[in-house]
Amino acid sequence: MKLCIIHYEIKRKTGQLNRSRAPNGTGNIHKGYRQFRLSDGLKYEHRLVMEKFLGRQLSRSEVVHHVNGNRLDNRPENLQIMGQREHARLHRAGGRTCP
After folding, report:
1. Residue 45, domain member (yes or no)
2. What confidence category does residue 74 fall into, taking pLDDT thresholds of 50, 70 and 90?
3. What is the DSSP string of 30-84?
């Protein structure tokens, strides 16, 4: 089975593709992203990290891109904020697709 870089990294790190618990035991993994249940609903970790870094909430139109393609690498230096069109254009140009 041929995997995109994101799924390859998940398989390499966890040994499986459909992991329901985060490696450190907190949150869940959904579509390769770590998410947490907060009082106001589910939030993806990369969006929480970027909001803290910027000191404001993100709008729904803002996308947080993982520079190295690893959806579990949520260090601020690996995250980049952009619009939805720019994000789609970036992935089309890179040819990265998922199965």
Report:
1. yes
2. very high
3. ETTEEEEEETTEEEEHHHHHHHHHHTSPPPTTEEEEETTS-TT---GGGEEEEEH
Q: Looking at the domain assignment, is residue 50 inside a domain?
A: yes
CATH of the domain at 11: 3.90.75
Pairing of strands 79-83, 33-38: unpaired
For the record, the structure tokens of 1 come out as: 């089975």
- What's the Cα-to-Cα distance from 41 to each of 7, 63, 84, rounded to whole Å? 26, 18, 22
Higher-confidence residue of 93 and 33: namely 33
The count of domains in the chain is 1
| 99 within a domain of the structure (yes/no) | no
Rounded to two decimals, what is the model's pTM? 0.68
Residue-range definition of the domain harbouring residue 63: 5-94
Each residue's pLDDT tens digit, 5-14 = 776 776 777 6
Least confident of 14-18, 44-48, 58-62, 91-95: 14-18
Instruction: Supply 12's token pair.
Output: 């390499």
